[in-house]
Design a protein that fits this description.
Layout (H helix, E strand, L loop, with lengths): L1 H14 L4 H9 L8 E2 L6 E2 H15 L1 H10 L8 H28 L4 H8 L3 H12 L1
Antiparallel strand pairs: 1-2
Helix pairs in contact: 5-6, 5-7, 6-7
């Protein structure tokens, strides 16, 4: 049963970072906004900035802590429709960027189709198709 909750919590940490402060407020009876400034041994920072730095420092210095947390938090990220849509959009955006890059290289006319395919991450056939669309 713990794995279900671990997965849900990991999903919140991964996809819904803006929900962390309300969760902390609920659990500890606080009223943080995330914009609070912390003054002391550290420079003036918000809680979110400080927590991000603390997590990075812990992970960098204490590999065994990271392994331990990984072993405890074994639940998979919850596969939601929103996550699938987001990933599909990211893939489409990356593919469109590759095509736009290849088109700029084709218009420049300095590189072969094979080199453009190599540099853009597209297949040779895709670059050829883009080249054909330019001549039409």
């Amino acid at each position: 049963m713990g794995n279900i909750y671990d997965g849900a919590f990991r999903t919140i940490l991964n996809d819904c970072r803006q929900l962390i402060i309300p969760v902390i407020n609920e659990i500890f009876g606080e009223d943080y906004t995330g914009g609070e400034e912390i003054i002391g041994a550290f420079d003036k920072r918000t809680i979110i900035e400080l927590s991000r730095d603390v997590i990075k420092e812990i992970a960098r210095k204490y590999e065994n802590v990271r392994k331990g947390v990984g072993e405890i938090m074994v639940g998979a990220l919850v596969d939601t429709e929103a996550r699938r849509i987001l990933n599909k959009g990211k893939d489409q955006g990356v593919n469109e960027t590759k095509k736009q890059t290849a088109l700029r290289m084709l218009k420049d006319g300095e590189l072969s189709i094979e080199k453009i395919a190599e540099y853009s991450g597209l297949k040779v056939a895709e670059v050829e198709q883009l080249a054909d669309s330019l001549t039409v």
